[in-house]
């Protein structure tokens, strides 16, 4: 499997394991309610905060979950090391990309994001259900990670090219609806994750390549992706891989983790 899958291909893959990752930062129960109302047949629900993050703290609003705990969840969901997995959310793919990245963090390569999410599934004429599937327990085991992370102490290394996935107004510090401090990490560029999309789908690899080249990203650069809390940054990681770049690193704490230490520098403006 590649990095993305379309709705028609997913519908033709009955043995693929599907996870609904819908979530709203402004209404944290909305994703589960939406799942209960309607979801892709066979899909299980993975909650950003209950399943795909540790408790908020000095490492940000959505720290990476404990690896052993996530492995146990995957086993409880019936996942094995040979499971083909597809992650989806409503459309943009940010929450789906978080689960995609976490699975790769555990060394699982056979995972893709449904391009266009549930909206694309419905547009392709596919049906939904309210039935919650059950599966026998799995025997998933973590393997060497396919991803890279950097700690806060490494973020400002001189060679790093920092890409911030938040929208321009938050990057500039003009607004901050979620975190207590506005601004961005010095030296970062604004790389709003939704600009990876056109009409709700990922742009072509050539278009994505041109986007990042315009920011000065070259193939050998050590790229570090961050956002508000390490979620939408994974969307840029996926886009960079689609564009043919080597695996960039994630700063998991992102902006919400960066600002927990008042000695760390902050920039504003574009």
Write down the CATH topology of the largest domain: Oxidized Rhodanese, domain 1
How far is the N terminus from the C terminus?
Answer: 38 Å
Structure class: alpha/beta
CATH architecture of the largest domain: 3-Layer(aba) Sandwich
Shape: globular
Q: What's the total number of strands?
A: 12
Query: How do the helices and strands follow one another from N- to C-terminus?
Result: EHEHEHEHEHEEHEEEHEHEH
> What summary fits the major beta sheet?
5 strands, parallel
The rounded Rg comes to: 18 Å
Work out the count of structural domains. 2
CATH class of the largest domain equals Alpha Beta
User: What portion of the residues fall into strands of 2 or more residues?
Assistant: 5-15%
Number of separate helices = 9
Helix % is 25-40%
In spatial order, strands of the major sheet run: 1-5-4-2-3
- Return the average pLDDT rounded to an integer: 96
Give a brief description:
This protein is of the alpha/beta class.
